[in-house]
Write a structure and sequence with these properties.
With 754 residues, the protein is an alpha+beta fold. It folds into two domains: 501 residues, Kinesin motor domain (Kinesin), CATH 3.40.850.10; 242 residues, no CATH class. It has 20 helices and 21 strands. Strands 5, 9, 10, 13, 14, 17, 18, 19, 20 and 21 form a ten-stranded mixed sheet that branches. Helix 9 packs antiparallel against helix 10. The relative contact order is 0.10. The protein binds adenosine-5'-triphosphate.
Length: 754
C-alpha cells in the first residue's frame, strides 16, 4: 500500500504538534524557537510551496556560503513532505524517482500497510510515487551543517553490552516550510550534541550520526558488530526509538531494493545485517570445514499492536500468547518460523511481513505508526571438536517501535481510545523498565515491571538481561520537533545507563553421548599408553628397567671390588653428585606414573558425572511436565471448569512433587560447567602424559640414565686404577671404602624401588 499524502490529510498535524508537548513542553515553546511556527493545518497545499520554499532556502543559502569546514547538506537530502518511509518498495525495481513533495493518504487500519510494495500487488507507478522521503527538488538549495565521521570501534562490544546511538535525520520539506532551517540541535562531535532550547543541554552518547550519514556507514557502526556478536553466541537486539516521522523505519528497513543482486544504497540496517550475516556464515563454514561447522537460521516477524500480538507472516494468527519456558525463555506460542539460508529468503519475509503490518490513522498523525514490530532471527551453529559436539546459538531481535510522541486521546474514541492507551502502555512500560534498570544500576532495589506490557515481557532479555543491545534514537533536528527531540534524547540518555549481562550461549558439554564417547576414547588412549609403558619397562624391551638392572650390576661389581681399591675423595664426591642426578631422574619417572593413575581416577569421576547429568536431565523433563500440567490447570481454572479449591489441592500436590525434584537437583547437581572443566583438565593431563612418551621426555630420561651409567663405569674403572696404586691400606682408605659401601647400599635401595 502506498503512502501517498494528500493535503487534506495534513490538517490533523496541528493536533499532533499540540499534543507533542512532553513534560518540558510548556517551558520550551515558543520563546526559545523563534519564529513562531505556522500551524501545520495552515500550510498550503504542497503544489503552492515552490515560491515560499525557494525563498526560505535562498535565505539559508546566502547565510552560509563561506565556511568550508562545513558540509553542504540538503542539496538532495531533505526529507520529503511525507513522514513516511517508503518502507518496502519493490525488491526488483531500481531505485525509484523521488517526488518533490508528496501528499499523504492514510490507508484504513485493517487493510493498510506501512510499507509500499510493488511487485506485490502495487503497480510500479504507485511505487515510484511513494519512493520518496528525500525530496529531489532541492538541488539548488543548501544549508551548512557540520558533519562528523563516525568511528568504527571494533573493541566497543568487548567492554560494553549496551550501545546508544542518536541518528539525526535531515530536515523534511514540511519542517523547512514551517520553521525554515532553524534547528533545535547543534552537533559538536561524533559523540556530543547540544539541544538548543532553554536551558541549552549537552548530551553525550556512544555515537551521534549526523544528518548526512549514509545507510551503509550506519550499518558499519551499528549493524556489522551486531552480526559478529551473534556469531560469537551473544543474543543481540536493536531498537529504533523516536517520534513518528523521525526515521525509525528508514533506519531499520529503508528502501528494500535489490538491483543486480546488490542491495540499494537506501537499504536500511536489517537487510544489510542479513546480507553480511550470510556472507560471514559462508566464510566460516568454508574455513572450518574439518570441524563440520554448520549454521542454521530461522526467522519470525511479529507485531504488537494494541497489546495484541499478530504473526506478520501468518496474519490470520492474531492475539498470540506469550509463554515462558525454562529452556527457551519467553516465546510467542504458535508464531511461525521460517528457515532461511540466503539474504533473499529474509528479504521475502521482510516484504511479506511489512505488507501485513497494521497501521492506524488517528487524528494525531495521518501516517503514524501505532504498532511495534519485532523481526527475530535465531542463529544456531554446531561443530565438532575434540570429539565433542559444540552448540552455539544467538537470538537477534530487530525492533521498530511505535512513535514515541505522547499520544493524547483528544479526538480518539472507542477502539482508537483503547488503542492509544495500549500503545502508551507498551511504550510507557518500556520507559518504566528502563527507569527501574537505571535505579538497579545505581544499586537501588527495584522491581522491574517487565510483565506489565507485551513488548517488555517479550524483550526482557534485551533490557537488562542476557543480550548486547543497541538503541538507535532517531530525532528530527527541526525546531518543530524540539520538545519531542529533547524527550527522545533524555530517553536515550537513561537507556545508556542500563547494564546488561550478555553471555555466550554455548554448550560444549551438552551432548551426554558425545561426552561418553569422549570418555571411552580417553580410556582407550590411556590403556594403550599404559600398555606401552609396561612393555617398555619389561627387560626384553631394553627400556629403563633393563638399564637400571645393568646399572645395579655395575654398582654391585663396584662395591665388591672396591673394598681394597677405593680411596679417592674427589671421585667419591663426584659419585655423590651423580647419585643425586640419577635419583632426580628416577623420581620424575615415578611422578609420571602417579599422574597416569590420577588420570584413570579422573576418568572414573567424569563417568560418574555423566551419569548424574543424565539423571538431572530426567528431573528437568519431569519439572517441565509439571509446568505444562500447571498451565493446563490454570487454563481450566480460568475457564471455570475446575473449582478454585480443587485447583489449589492439585497445585499443592504438584508443588510438593516439584519441591522433591528440586531438592534432588540441589543434592545431586552435576554442574554442567564443572563437567566441561573436568573434561578439559582430563584432556590436558592426557596430553602431558602423551608428551611424556611421544615427545621424547622418556627417551631423554633414558639417555640421562645411560649417561650416568657410563660415567659411573668410568669412575669405577678409574678408581680401580687408582686403588691399585695404593698398596698400603691406611685407616683413611678403609673409612672411605666404608662410605662407598654405604653409598652403594643406598643406591641399591633406591633402585630396588623401581
Ligand atoms: N536519514 C534520513 N535520510 C533521508 N530521509 C529520511 C531519513 N530518515 C527518515 N527519512 C524520511 O523521513 C520520512 C519519515 O521516516 P520514517 O517513516 O522512517 O519515520 P518513522 O519514525 O518510522 O515514522 P513512524 O513512527 O510513522 O513509523 C520518510 O519519508 C523517510 O524516508
Amino acid at each position: 500500500m502506498s503512502k501517498e499524502s494528500s493535503s487534506s490529510r495534513l490538517a490533523p498535524k496541528t493536533s499532533q504538534h499540540e499534543s507533542n508537548e512532553n513534560e518540558l513542553g510548556t517551558s520550551l515553546n515558543p520563546i526559545n524557537f523563534p519564529p513562531p511556527r505556522t500551524p501545520l493545518n495552515s500550510i498550503p497545499d504542497p503544489s503552492q510551496y515552490s515560491v515560499q520554499e525557494s525563498e526560505l532556502i535562498r535565505t539559508a543559502t546566502n547565510r552560509s556560503a563561506s565556511d568550508k569546514s562545513k558540509v553542504i547538506l540538503e542539496s538532495n537530502a531533505s526529507v520529503g513532505l511525507s513522514h513516511a518511509t517508503p518502507r518496502f518498495p519493490a525488491r526488483h525495481h531500481g531505485r525509484a524517482h523521488m517526488e518533490p513533495s508528496s501528499v499523504q493518504s492514510t490507508p484504513a487500519r485493517s487493510g493498510g500497510s506501512r510499507y509500499s510494495l510493488s511487485g506485490r500487488g502495487i503497480s510500479s507507478s504507485s511505487f515510484s510515487r511513494v519512493t520518496r522521503g528525500i525530496s529531489a527538488m532541492n538541488h539548488e538549495f543548501s544549508v551548512e551543517v557540520p558533519q562528523f565521521e563516525l568511528v568504527d570501534d571494533p573493541l566497543f562490544w568487548n567492554y560494553h553490552n549496551v550501545q546508544v546511538l542518536i541518528r539525526i535525520r535531515p530536515l523534511s520539506t514540511i519542517e523547512r516550510v514551517s520553521q525554515g532551517y532553524a534547528r533545535c540541535l547543534r552537533q559538536e562531535s561524533s559523540q556530543t550534541l547540544v539541544w538548543l532550547g532553554h536551558p541549552e543541554t549537552r548530551f553525550t552518547f556512544d555515537d551521534v550520526a549526523c544528518e548526512t550519514i549514509s545507510q551503509e556507514k550506519l550499518f558499519r557502526v551499528a549493524g556489522l558488530p551486531m552480526v559478529e556478536n551473534c556469531l560469537s553466541g551473544y543474543n543481540s537486539c536493536m531498537f529504533a526509538y523516536g517520534q513518528t516521522g523521525s526515521g525509525k523505519t528508514y533506519t531499520m528497513m529503508g528502501e528494500i531494493n535489490e538491483v543486480e543482486g546488490k542491495l540499494s544504497e537506501d537499504c536500511g540496517i536489517t537487510p544489510r545485517i542479513f546480507e553480511y550475516l550470510f556472507s560471514r556464515i559462508r566464510t566460516e563454514e568454508e574455513n572450518r570445514r574439518e570441524e563440520r561447522l554448520k549454521f542454521s537460521c530461522k526467522c519470525s516477524f511479529l507485531e504488537i499492536y494494541n497489546e495484541q500480538i499478530t504473526d506478520l507472516l501468518e496474519p490470520s494468527s492474531t492475539n498470540l500468547q506469550l509463554r515462558e519456558d525454562l529452556k527457551k525463555g519467553v516465546y510467542v506460542e504458535n508464531l511461525t518460523e521460517y528457515n532461511v539460508t540466503t539474504v533473499n529468503d529474509v528479504l521475502d519475509l521482510l516484504v511479506e511481513g511489512a505488507a501485513n503490518r497494521k497501521m492506524a490513522a488517528t487524528n494525531m498523525n495521518s501516517e503514524s505508526s501505532r504498532s511495534h514490530s519485532v523481526f527475530t532471527c535465531i542463529i544456531e551453529s554446531q561443530w565438532e571438536k575434540d570429539s565433542m559436539t559444540h552448540f552455539r546459538f544467538a537470538r537477534l531481535n530487530l525492533v521498530d517501535l511505535a512513535g514515541s510522541e505522547r499520544q493524547k486521546s483528544s479526538g480518539a474514541e472507542g477502539d482508537r481510545l483503547k488503542e492509544a492507551a495500549n500503545i502508551n502502555k507498551s511504550l510507557s512500560t518500556l520507559g518504566m523498565v528502563i527507569m527501574s534498570l537505571v535505579d538497579l544500576a545505581h544499586g537501588k532495589h527495584r522491581h522491574v515491571p517487565y510483565r506489565d506490557s507485551r513488548l517488555t515481557f517479550l524483550l526482557q532479555d534485551s533490557l537488562g538481561g542476557n543480550s548486547k543491545t543497541t538503541i538507535i534514537a532517531n530525532v528530527s533536528p527541526s525546531n518543530c520537533s524540539a520538545n519531542e527531540t529533547l524527550s527522545t534524547l533524555k530517553f536515550a540518555q537513561r537507556a545508556k545507563l542500563i547494564q546488561n549481562d550478555a553471555k555466550v550461549n554455548e554448550n560444549a558439554s551438552g551432548d551426554v553421548t558425545a561426552l561418553q564417547r569422549q570418555i571411552q576414547q580417553l580410556k582407550g588412549q590411556l590403556s594403550s599408553l599404559m600398555k606401552h609403558h609396561n612393555q617398555s619397562r619389561s627387560p626384553s624391551s631394553g627400556g629403563s628397567r633393563f638399564e637400571e638392572s645393568r646399572l645395579r650390576d655395575n654398582f654391585m661389581k663396584y662395591s665388591f671390588s672396591e673394598e681394597e681399591k677405593m680411596g679417592d675423595k674427589v671421585q667419591n664426591e663426584k659419585v655423590k653428585c651423580l647419585e643425586v642426578t640419577l635419583l632426580g631422574a628416577l623420581r620424575r619417572e615415578k611422578m609420571a606414573e602417579t599422574a597416569a593413575l590420577k588420570l584413570e581416577a579422573e576418568i572414573e569421576h567424569t563417568n560418574r558425572l555423566a551419569c548424574q547429568r543424565e539423571e538431572d536431565a530426567q528431573r528437568i523433563k519431569m519439572m517441565l511436565k509439571f509446568r505444562e500440567e500447571k498451565i493446563k490447570q490454570l487454563e481450566s481454572l480460568v475457564n471455570g471448569s475446575v473449582s478454585a479449591e480443587k485447583y489449589l489441592m492439585e497445585e499443592i500436590k504438584a508443588l510438593k512433587e516439584e519441591i522433591q525434584l528440586l531438592q534432588a537437583r540441589i543434592d545431586r547437581n552435576p554442574e554442567l560447567t564443572r563437567f566441561a572443566l573436568e573434561n578439559i583438565r582430563l584432556l590436558e593431563q592426557l596430553q602431558l602424559f602423551q608428551n611424556f612418551y611421544e615427545l621424547g621426555e622418556r627417551e631423554a630420561l633414558l639417555a640421562e640414565v645411560a649417561e650416568l651409567r657410563d660415567q659411573i663405569l668410568d669412575i669405577t674403572e678409574g678408581k680401580g686404577e687408582i686403588s691399585s696404586r695404593y698398596e698400603k691400606k691406611d685407616n683413611d682408605t678403609v673409612k672411605e671404602l666404608e662410605d662407598c659401601r654405604d653409598l652403594n647400599s643406598k643406591l641399591m635401595r633406591y633402585l630396588s624401588i623401581i
